[in-house]
Amino acid sequence: DVPPSIDEITTLRVVYQNVNGFSELDPNNKLLCHHLQQLQCGIFLAAETNVNWRNRTMVEKFKGYGNKVWPNHRLIVSSQTCGSDPAHRNSQYLPGGVAIWVNDYWATRVLDCGSDSHGLGRWCFVTVGIKGGICVTIFCVYRVCAQSVTLAGDLTATRQQFVSLELARGKTTS
């Protein structure tokens, strides 16, 4: 169903979706921002992007999709720190991750933004100011699926987070 039309200046429409992975090969990714514009989406929250947001090429690619629709927008992202490791830094794919697109008018209202300070790629946030001095903070959060760490593959979001948390506790994973 198509939501009712809104005044995009006085009403903020937030859309959330677990996208279960963006793929560069999927032509729908290039149309994503067009679809969001048709929905009059002010902020789009995407969980489980499976994009290595630590690869600047990927960030610029997805910013470019937005540039074609909105002359003014913001992209806030988070992915696991292992995406910066030499073995993965040039990879486009990294399980997990989240992204927030702040579109058009609302991009001019951004007061603050940030991401998971532990480097797990679980969440990011944006704070926008609205008239009357009111601030709204919106989080996009990804929770890994419940699965056994011993059965999880080496690069799954579950394994990435387990290894990071164990290292932070001073334990080895071998």
Task: Note down, in words, how this protein is organized.
The chain is α+β, with helices and mostly antiparallel strands and 174 residues long. The chain contains three helices and seven strands. The strands form two sheets. It has a four-stranded mixed sheet with strand order 1-2-4-3, with helices on one face. The protein has a three-stranded antiparallel sheet with strand order 5-6-7, with no helix packed on it. The longest helix has 12 residues, at 27-38. It starts with 13 loop residues before the first strand and ends in a 6-residue tail after the last helix.
Short summary:
The chain is of the alpha+beta class and about 170 residues long.
CA-atom Rg in angstroms:
17 Å
Question: Portion of residues in helices?
Answer: 10-25%
Order of the strands making up the biggest sheet: 1-2-4-3
**Number of beta-strand segments:** 7
The overall pLDDT, averaged over residues, is: 87
Shape: globular
Give the arrangement of secondary structure elements.
Elements: E1 14-18, H1 27-38, E2 43-47, H2 56-67, E3 73-78, E4 98-103, E5 110-115, E6 123-130, E7 134-141, H3 157-168
Parallel strand pairs: 1-2
Antiparallel strand pairs: 2-4, 3-4, 5-6, 6-7
What key attributes describe this structure?
174 residues, alpha+beta, 4-stranded mixed beta sheet, 3-stranded antiparallel beta sheet, 3 helices, 25% strand, globular
